Amino acid sequence: SVLTATCTVGSCSATASGSVVIGNGVLLPPDAGILSLSADESGCPVQLVGQGIGSSFVFTGPGESGGYVFSNAYRSGGTYPLLATGIKQPGTYRLTATYTTECGTSAPVTRTVTVGRSCP
């Protein structure tokens, strides 16, 4: 829905409009998204490079002791470049993005990438 509001003080007025998502009568946070995700295997350790929309981004992967975990959290949501470093084991890595606002937290969005290179 697009909402428009007008504020009038004396003979001056200002109008603003914006989009909001309403589900079951409740304001919802924006949708999270993953725009890109790839593995840069040109060096060791490997890096995961991506771009996401949200406020929290968590990389997880294979490995001992619960696997690889690397996270980025931002005070306000938006579109951010993402980088996970220090990856030494081959396998499937997952990026999960969520968008948290005062209205709550979006459904998580995930994407996977496979790393083929093993680093000492």
Summarize the structure in words.
With 120 residues, this protein is mainly β. Helix content is 0%, strand content 68%. It is built from no helices and eleven strands. The strands form four sheets. Strands 5, 6, 7, 8 and 11 form a five-stranded antiparallel β-sheet that branches. Strands 1-2 form a two-stranded antiparallel ribbon. The chain has a two-stranded antiparallel ribbon with strand order 3-4. A hairpin with a 2-residue loop joins strand 3 and strand 4 (26-27). The mean pLDDT is 85.
Brief description of this entry?
By secondary structure, the protein is mainly beta. It contains no helices and 11 strands.
What class do helices, strands and sheet pairing give? Answer: mainly beta
State Rg. Answer: 20 Å
- Total beta strand runs: 11
N→C terminal distance:
53 Å
Average pLDDT confidence is: 85
In DSSP terms, counting alpha (H) and pi (I) runs of 4 or more, how many helices? 0
Q: Tell me about the largest β-sheet.
A: 5 strands, antiparallel
Helix content: under 10%
Morphology call: elongated
Strand content: over 45%
SSE series: EEEEEEEEEEE
